[in-house]
Amino acid sequence: MSFPWANEYKPSNAFTRYLDEKLPLPRFVYNAVGAGYPVPRNLNYFWNFGVLAGVALMVQIVSGIILAMHYAAEGTVAFASVEHIMRDVNAGWFIRYAHMNGASMFFIVVYIHIFRGLFYGSYKPPREMVWHLGLVIFLLMMATAFMGYVLPWGQMSFWGAKVITGLFGAIPLVGEPIQTWLLGGFAPDNAALNRFFSLHYLLPFVILGVIVLHIWALHIPGSSNPTGVEVKSEQDTVPFHPYYTAKDGVGVAAFFLVFATLLFFAPNFLGEPDNYIPANPMSTPANIVPEWYFWPFYAILRAFTVDFLFIPAKLLGVLAMFAAILLLFFLPWLDTSAVRSGHYRPLFRKFFWFGLIPCIVVLGYCGGSHATDGIVLISQFAAAYYFAHFLIILPLIARVETPKPLPNSITEAVLAQHATLQPAE
Amino acid sequence: MASLKEDSATAGGDQGGVRRRDFINVAAASFAGVGAVSVALPLINQMNPSADVLAEASTEVDVSAIAPGQAIKTIFRKQPLFVRHLTPEEIAAAEKVSTSELRDPQTLEERTKAGKKQWLVTMGVCTHLGCVPLGAAAGEIKGEFGGYFCPCHGSSYDTAGRIRKGPAPKNLMVPEYAFTSDTVIKVG
Amino acid sequence: MIRIGAFLVGLFFSGWLLVSAAMGAFNFVKSPPAPTAEHEFHKKPKDVDFSFNGPLGTYDRAQLQRGLQVFREVCSACHSLHYVSFRDFAALGYNEAQIKTIAQEWPTEAPSINPETGEATTRKPIATDKIPAPYPNEVAARAANNNAAPPDLSLMTKARHGGANYVYSLLTGYQNPPAELKKKFPDSMPGKTTHYNPYFANLNLAMPRPLNTDGQVTYGEGAPKPTVDQMAKDVAAFLTWTAEPKLEQRKRAGTAAVIFLLVFFGLCVGAYKNIWADKKAHA
User: C155 with C228, same domain?
Assistant: First the structure.
């Protein structure tokens, strides 16, 4: 980290001195997430979610490795092996429900992390690389989650695999060969199940690697903060440890409280009942829906109902769905406002809270519902807003908006807030 | 604005004696530890045999069809189990041996059930390195002591399944079993 | 350049979505979708006050045993219980000897191989066997049931919205189709091999009414009267247990975990305030 006032690691005994000489791992950790990393002193609870995402990933990796000890990736026994875990393996139900709901917790946390970045302008220079690596993690997570959902080999697993690989079939000319290649057959079967299992095991470790890059890239400019004003002096920062380890402790406890409630008292609340029916290629569920975290994108996919000239509606839907994620990569150049934080951007803030957030919620609701005419109509308006928000409205706001005056420094902002909270002081 | 070093010193609680606020920090950290351990326990226990494996840990064997001099191989806990109907000569041969010259001293009496001396029930697992000894199926060599012979490293067992020659340290293991009727054995 | 490109892409996607919406709305007005029979006649499952409802609910062992009896005497003629073993009945309060008897007396036998000839045969089930299915395979199940194979019931209460309430409502929901249905949707009237039931997704199911009369199953001493309603509740409870046998352990562990985490959360908040105390003071 670049701030000159960062604490320096001092090995305290002979062993740590030896280690510091041969393999300075403790020094590395000290500087990355220890007392050697100065962090803005004014971070609010939205800044907990990066650490929480890391916790969620660890939960998934640990529970996943254990599940793989008992799971069998073969079409005729995959479903039964999951039931074996649920019924016969010691604490198997706990581990499986933890993995199932852990995936949801991971996405909840990561979505809040992403929206934190969107509101506080964390994607803006000098942190574009942090943002881009974050999006790479998000894409990897989506792929991992999708393949993991196929593994229990229930009805939704099977039909999800069929529908999602079918999206590639929409690509002109090469689409169908690609779909067949992805599945290793003409429909999801053993070949697909085994490769999905293999990749589902691999990708989390790739995610782990990209997270290291994400944090590395973050440490070059240092953490952003709610004012969006850069750190100017030592009094603007506190060492990560113990200040933010303590604050993250509160976040982690709250995370596990929500997680435990979900896991122990409503483990199937976020799941689809159809996935407790073994995969049956001869009968389609009445309503094929992905897991909740894909609903907004699924709604965009289904919103395209009319062909555009020679482009079929199906292909348009697929393009739009991928565009909906990929456009986030261009955000640093679309939102050119010099002010980062939404706090000081009155117009941006209005569009964020009354445009983007309701739009995503509505898209999510539509994606999870049966696609009736009414639902499709609503999702068309919401999806239209989604694209307009990022591609048209954000660049325009940056041109016309007059931001509120920024505080001179982080410390000044903290003092001002303190004064309004405790007028007696 | 205090300097950082002073701050962390305060937080660390170096200023004479343990104060109440430090106690909370320690308590929070200890709770995290207790939580981690109580989650770790089931995560370790999951590697133990699952309920379906444990349920198959007992096997019933009908021995009525085994003629004297014959043996059968069956499966107990996914390992071979030998049930052997000893002939009077074999019993006599086993009883003739004095226990003092045995590597693992045991009498035939101790290795069979009372009044059922002719039924020798042992695991078919050599006590050396776990190979399956020969001698249970018809036509297999029984070794020089007429019991079982392990082809891996040449351990020879006698008609009571006791180690007599070769590297194996112990007699063939006798599992826990009981006669539920005259002709049915419940193993495990 | 990026912003011009983005503007055009945004204009295209948003514009085309609005055009699609307009066309959709126009079609909707021009030819509104016809109402469906399911939409008008399908009913949500009734709420039953089961003992296992709620965050601390547990199974009623006696009820599960009665449910097993109903399953054995009625459902098992057509439905399998693939993921449940006889040994699992220990959780219903049976001892080893009782489980052995239940297995021995089960109406269907377990598939086996004749040790002499190697031919496929059947034998009396033992405790470690899965509950034997009434049909050897799906083709046989279809052939015997007008081409509608009876589904496995092990996970039924987790595989349907409404769970146990759904099973109960379905079992007690058989009725004559309303006259209005015949008038408005003659196509949705039950056929020769289907039966009207408003709790079933498409209103007509292949399974004929399984619980017909009070006393169809004879309960033991001290049990409630085996009315159709009672039998439906009992078997719904039993099928909840087959789907979620670890429900009680789960809730117990959950209660402990949540209490522990609440205390931990409190301590974390305390430690946090503690560590930040000087920062706030010096601010």
Answer: yes
